[in-house]
Design brief:
Ubiquitin-like (UB roll), 3 domains, Rossmann fold, alpha/beta, globular, Elongation Factor Tu (Ef-tu), domain 3
């Protein structure tokens, strides 16, 4: 992670459990424009590293904005960031993308649930700036629980936003179908929110636009059944070879053997440990690579994914 010292210049309250932090560089330099949909690693006062989506306009150079939801079972990440004050200094990394605007689409549909509005907001900024056809559909439990409602209702793209408050999960299906009414196989759908919400959006959208044209941004790790795991061999492109036991990850074995692998969440969410696959068949268990990336089989997340073949040859990025 590239360490960038930033100072908190403004704190906002979007909901009782969601606060925004506006960040400026401590060295006074401007931020480089980022690709919409990006997130950054943030190290808070307790030293815990977590990822948060950037939700300010991608071209804005003076500051960056993140939104932090206070998780009830926080292990020191979101809870610590809910205690910082204006003037406090944090450390962040360079923006990284798992989801970004796809060029050449005839229409873009953004579907957000709850705090999942954060990456969708930056995508909306970029699509609006590019003059592209898009619609943003936002579901939240109530006005009090929603984030950025005032902004969404007054932004330059407000006429492209549909806000649905208090709609039960099952009743959201026809609303998503309505939003897909003009979609084609050249359209792209982007979604973020609770796991069940995104699964439902994907189930509705994939038959219309195609599975590869549905892009999902995860905040939570997938639940994985490891009971049938077995050992396999990993060989680096340098020729070094390592046995990966059934109860160990590729990442942990490489790290224990002094191999430097950039990593962050270690849960298959952030994509920082994704590396190339030169030979063999990976068993994808992450929530960061797209369906198309997984089908290609030429990269994998070393922290959670394993092998379907007896041996993998990998290239560290």
């Amino acid at each position: 992670m590239t360490d960038i010292k930033v100072r908190v210049t403004q704190i906002g309250v979007e909901a009782p459990h969601i606060r925004t932090l506006r960040l400026v560089r401590e060295d006074g330099r401007p931020f480089e424009p980022y690709r919409a949909g990006a997130h950054v690693d943030v190290v808070g006062p307790t030293g815990v590293l977590r990822q948060y989506s950037l939700c300010s306009p991608p071209s804005e150079s003076g500051s960056q904005l993140i939104a932090v939801k206070l998780e009830p079972d926080s292990r020191g990440g979101s809870a610590a960031l809910h205690q910082v004050g204006e003037g406090d200094v944090l450390t962040i990394g360079e923006p990284r993308n798992l989801v970004s605007v796809v060029d050449g689409a005839d229409h873009h549909l953004l579907v957000a649930g709850g705090i999942g509005i954060t990456p969708m907001l930056s995508l909306a900024y970029e699509l609006h700036g590019r003059g592209e056809e898009f619609r943003l559909v936002y579901f939240a439990r109530s006005r009090e629980d929603a984030a950025f409602l005032d902004l969404l209702e007054t932004a330059g793209f407000a006429d492209r936003v549909d806000i649905h408050l208090g709609v039960p999960r099952a009743d959201q299906v026809p609303l998503v179908r309505d939003a897909l009414e003009t979609a084609t196989t050249s359209s792209h759908v982007y979604t973020c929110g609770p796991a069940g919400f995104m699964e439902q959006v994907t189930a509705v959208a994939a038959p219309v636009v195609g599975e590869r044209n549905v892009h999902v941004e995860h905040f939570e790790a997938a639940e994985i059944d490891t009971s049938a795991d077995s050992s396999f061999t990993v060989e680096l492109d340098t020729g070094e070879s390592f046995e990966i036991p059934a109860d160990r990850s590729i990442l942990s074995v490489l790290t224990d053997n002094g191999i430097d692998v950039f990593t962050s969440c270690e849960e298959g969410i952030c994509g920082s440990c994704v590396s190339g696959v030169l030979d063999g068949v990976p068993d994808h268990r992450d929530n960061c690579l797209s369906a198309a990336d997984k089908d290609a089989g030429d990269q994998m997340a070393l922290c959670v994914s394993r092998a379907k073949s007896p041996k993998l040859v990998i290239e560290l990025y």
